[in-house]
Amino acid sequence: MFERLADKARDTFYLNPQxxxxxxxxxxxENCRRIEEYNEVFMRLISGRLCIHIWGxxxxxxxxxxxxxxxxxxxxxxxxxxxxGKKNEKSAExxxxx
Length: 98
Hints:
- 24% of the residues lie in helices and 50% in strands.
- It is an alpha+beta fold.
- The chain has a single domain, classed as Immunoglobulin-like.
- The chain has a six-stranded antiparallel β-sheet, with no helix packed on it.
- It starts with a helix and ends with a helix.
């Protein structure tokens, strides 16, 4: 029950990520919390309960100060990984240590 209330609160206060595409050249991610990894071909972002992996070429990040992130470049693939629960957090920690 608490989980449903928390989900409704996130939706109400716009804490869940909002993602907008402009073809495969630009991506706007609202409510992006942090950038975990960033180079010209791969980005790993944390936004709410999602870990977002972006692959492409000539990737560049813009305008992070507004709690949103604009990614420009040639985007070839996006993967969404849900990060809820302690089990997933421990797995993510192990991946970062490797």
